[in-house]
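Intended use. Records like the one below are meant for learning the mapping from a protein sequence to its folded structure. Do not use them to infer anything beyond what is encoded.
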Amino acid sequence: WRDWVVAGGEVKVGGEGLTLKRTWRSLDGTAVDLKAQPVKLADLIYVELEVTNTRGERVQNIALVDRLPAGWEIENARLGRGGSVDWVDADSLWAADYVNVRDDRMEAFGALQAHETKKLVYAVRAVTAGSFTLPSAEAEAMYDSSLWARDAAGTVQVTGPWKDDLL
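Structure written out for the chain above:
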């Protein structure tokens, strides 16, 4: 098991053959800087994942995984929550082959044409106050691990009316 643990916990960011950019947005589409300002309890935040194939050929079987910090929940659009927003250009959205909405992550699987850029947009809600690790988002060609992209991890603060009462 020692071979599985990364010393120092540093994860390589960037990419090879793919790029990935994660942006957090408010309801009106304005970018939100999670490092500069805390999220308020019950805030709705939109996650915009932009994945690009930088190669000159089609890449298929891409797995895009965005893990959530503890204390956040996905607003599942399939259940009528989170809804669509008018600042998203429908033509820019990724028509993924399969989307898997989990409690702790959003997963999408599909292909990108040569030099194609597509977006995945979904809503999350801050449901617990505190300081949480914000895991990295990553994309990888499932059957060719040399094609990958990863956005940086970080931390997020969620403030709430009972934050000062927590131990």
